[in-house]
Amino acid sequence: MLLYIHIPFCDSKCFYCAFNSYTDRFHLKHEYMNALKIQLRNDIENYIIKDNKKIETVFIGGGTPSTIKAFEYEEIFEIIKPHLEKDAEITTEANPNSASYEWLESMNKLGVNRVSFGVQSFDTAKLKFLGRAHSSNSAITAIQNANEIGFKGINCDIIYGVQNDTLESMKKDFDMAFSLPITHLSAYSLTIEEGTKFFDRSSVKIDDEELSYEIFDYINNKGFHQYEISNFAKNKVSESKHNYGYWQHKEYLGVGAGAVGYVKNQRYYPSKGIEEYIKNPLINEREDISLDDIKTEKILLGFRSLNGVEKSLFDEKEMKKVDDLIEGDKLYMENERIFNKNFLLSDEIALYILD
User: β-pairing, 337-340 with 153-160?
Assistant: First the structure.
């Protein structure tokens, strides 16, 4: 079982961000953390203890987890520690402007062994354009501090496909990232979503498939292998076990306002608004996930990553299409699993097989 904990507070709202996060609710932080503990205890009782399971990975995301003081997490870790697998991967997201040396050190002492920095770029003009609140220097310092403190895994998020991005400008970002002690890189193509400042401003995004291929090749040539459409790791050990769990369609607890959980073929959604969540953190909407939907998700996620797809998942008609794609050098089979050679074509390949 995986555990996701959502922190919906942010110092500032990035212009592309569609996540459930707020910049004007800081006075509710302490109450929110108390509500979060209520849901966490409830979910552990009902889905971990009752079913005799263990928590394999923990991911504290947001929003910005580093906007919450480290001491507020102490009880969270007291609650989960008895239920963690040995050497469980525990990740926190962090923004360079709020992840001080002291905060990082305190979180590491609590048990966090992996940190993911929302850097997005080392270029000052691009950071301003994206609405990021930190500077290039603060990002560099935060990564160096995390390494000095002793985090086993350090991820750096970079965004590409933004207006004025070129391969040469992106190389500068990647070269700076690779000059730092990171173990993992996430390279995300900018997406324009409703409810963001960038919505209705299509000119801010570049749709350039060739740029994506060039970026992927450049990162791979720097020694970071691609194991999912947006994720690259220095070695096998450095891959995100938590994210891999999602791609393998493992069950996960979703704790916090706007989080999502998935247990026993059901998704559950706690209240999205912070005030509503604080009032009753145990209210959630539920959605049954059909076996057909589960199959589709396994295929889509499997082709987006090195996880691949079980051969037995395909029926006879679908397998004929799979065989055609293997013959056309689009897919390959190994140990009764089907793997995709080109992650950028994953959706098209999955939809063609399932049509």
Answer: unpaired
Give the Cα separation of 166 and 156 in Å (integer).
19
Say if pTM beats, i.e. exceeds, 0.85: yes
**Strand 55-62 relative to strand 84-94: parallel, antiparallel, unpaired?**
parallel
Least confident of 7-11, 80-84, 195-199, 320-324: 195-199
Residues with Cβ < 8 Å from 100, sequence gap 6 or more?
A: none
**63: cis peptide before it, omega within 30°?**
yes
d(CA 270, CA 284): 4
SS3 annotation, 67-134: HCCHHHHHHHHHHHHHHEEEEEEEEEEECCCCCCHHHHHHHHHHCCCEEEEEEECCCHHHHHHHCCCC
Q: Which CATH superfamily does the domain covering 2-247 fall into?
A: Aldolase class I (3.20.20.70)
Q: Where do the domains of the chain lie? A: 2-247, 290-355
Place of tokens 């209705």: 200
User: pLDDT for 174-199, tens place per residue?
Assistant: 999 999 999 999 999 887 555 544 44
Of 56, 149, 134, 132, the residue nearest 97 (C-alpha): 134
Task: Give exposure, 186-196, as e/b (b: 16+ Cβ within 10 Å).
Answer: bbebbeeeeeb
Give the C-alpha separation, 352 to 355, whole Å: 5
* DSSP code, position 9: B
Side-chain half-sphere exposure of 36, counting CA atoms within 13 A? 31
The per-residue DSSP string of 130-162 comes to HT--S-HHHHHHHHHHHHHHT-SEEEEEEEESB
